[in-house]
Write a structure and sequence with these properties.
Length: about 475
């Protein structure tokens, strides 16, 4: 790689060519070829593009390399007994006319912000995956929350990239788009119109859902142009519970209606898993019902923080064919939507409290929120997730770091309680990592056990055997 800080080691001309696209797995190569001379970048390719091939060129003066090396070596000539000779050869890398060519001057390196990378990287990855799969588009359960809204906006970003590529004359992209939509004469011009052809969203509401989330999902779908459906899952849930009742003679109740914690959790899981079954059903048959060929890839919308704490149901609507946000934290996703708020109706989504809406409403309002269930905020989880993975912290070392990071917000006792609660949630739910949907990964804090985090997925949940000696005891003593 080339950077200004490594100029001393790049005394010469450097050509960097990178693969573009994916190999059908979790890795996406972003391209971005470059040409450098003596540590200065003089040409840079496009990062995150739907073009299969990109060629950049630059004119360099090799005498600049000779001068640079001579300048760098000059202080050592007196102490080096071997003189530096210039060797002449009977061939040339250029001809006499090249002396009139202007050389490329150093350019300012173009960096994408993290929010821009969220918009572009997963979108290009989705395009590669869609082309390889032979499917006709995507289906996303759209709940009106930050996570599913982020997945939807990434698909819209893909449609923007595809329309720009076709407008720029990329015939390969045009052929691929026509093959995906099943129309050999189609030419995409507007992202919203293309989105309506390759993207289907569905709001899966129940008696526990609010009108607010339904409206947010509908408004976002209308703005990006997806084909949107509203589905009520109550009939399917009651049918499944009826089967259970016919066998056992019992009908479970929510906690607010006097049910036990086990009953309450089971009723939430039924709703979540019904949504997954319906998502795959509509992915297979929704285009058939409209008289179009092909099926749809089901998109997931589970973020890193939910995976880290296990705050999701195995094989629920977070289970999908692929997940564009599976390697991104909630805090980064909020920043991404904040970037789009001027073009898309994201303001209400950002300000709404995160909730799964799986428990009965109270006076028509949500009685359950994610952060209350997890006993910590998503911003706290973002810090904890980086310490756990990047800093390789266990319970005690994480506590030692957080008492300084959060000294103005929490007492040492409160920090200890949060650390202990997090590692309990992490350990009892770590087995869920084995069922995670394949996801695009761009951050080193990913908890995915398939590639990025090879720690065990079964733990001694009281942390008696896996924690360093005295670590759990120290935290327990503080509590």
């Amino acid at each position: 790689t080339c950077c200004a800080g490594s100029r001393h080691y790049l005394r010469g001309s450097t050509l960097y060519a990178n693969q573009k696209g994916c190999d059908g797995d979790r890795v996406y190569y972003d391209g971005c070829a470059m040409v450098a001379i003596n540590g200065d970048i003089v040409a840079q390719g496009v990062q995150f593009s739907v073009n299969d091939v990109e060629v950049i060129s630059a004119t360099l003066d090799l005498e600049d390399v000779r001068s640079y090396r001579g300048r760098e070596n000059h202080p050592h000539l007196e102490s080096d007994p071997k003189p530096c000779y210039r060797v002449r050869v009977n061939f040339s890398l250029s001809d006499v006319d090249d002396v009139h060519l202007p050389v490329h001057q150093p350019v300012e390196w173009c960096f994408h912000t993290p929010e821009e990378e969220i918009s572009l990287g997963p979108a290009c990855w989705l395009w590669d995956y869609l082309r390889r799969s032979g499917q006709a588009g995507f289906l996303l359960p759209l709940s009106g929350g930050v996570d599913s809204a982020s997945s939807a906006c990434i698909v819209h970003s893909l449609c923007v990239l595809l329309c720009r590529a076709v407008e720029d004359g990329n015939t390969q992209v045009l052929d691929d788009v026509r093959r995906v939509v099943g129309d050999s004469t189609y030419r995409p011009t507007q992202p919203r119109e293309l989105c309506s052809r390759i993207f289907t969203t569905c709001y899966m509401g129940s008696e526990n859902s609010t009108e607010d989330t339904r409206t947010r999902a509908k408004d976002l779908a209308g703005e990006i142009g997806s084909t949107h459906m509203t589905i009520n899952i109550d009939l399917a849930v009651r049918s499944i519970l009826g089967i259970f009742s016919a066998v056992t003679g019992k009908w479970p109740q929510f906690g607010v209606n006097g049910g036990s914690r086990r009953e309450n959790l089971a009723l939430q899981n039924v709703q979540a898993r019904v949504r997954m079954v319906l998502a795959y059903l509509f992915a297979q048959l929704s285009l058939w019902s409209r008289g179009r060929p092909g099926g749809l890839l089901v998109l997931g919308s589970a973020n890193v923080d939910e995976s880290l704490t296990g705050y999701f149901t195995k094989y629920d609507c977070s289970s999908a064919d692929i997940n564009p946000i599976g390697g991104i934290s909630k805090a980064d996703l909020k920043n991404f939507l904040f970037l789009l708020r001027r073009d898309l109706p994201a303001e209400h989504i950002l300000t709404a409290p995160p909730t799964a809406e799986l428990e009965p409403l109270k006076d028509g309002q949500v009685s359950q929120t994610d952060e209350a269930d997890m006993k910590m905020t998503y911003s706290e989880l973002s810090v904890i997730g980086r310490l756990r993975k990047i800093s390789m912290c266990g319970p005690f070392s994480m506590f030692c770091k957080l008492i300084h990071l959060w000294k103005d917000l929490l007492s040492p006792v409160e920090v200890a309680q949060k650390v202990k609660h997090f590692f309990w949630m992490y350990s009892v739910n770590r087995h869920k990592m084995t069922t995670l949907t394949p996801a695009y990964h761009a951050e080193s804090y990913s908890p995915d056990d398939n590639r990025f985090d090879l720690r065990p997925f079964l733990y001694d949940t009281p942390w008696r055997k896996v924690a360093p000696a005295g670590a759990v005891g120290a935290i327990t003593h503080l509590i």
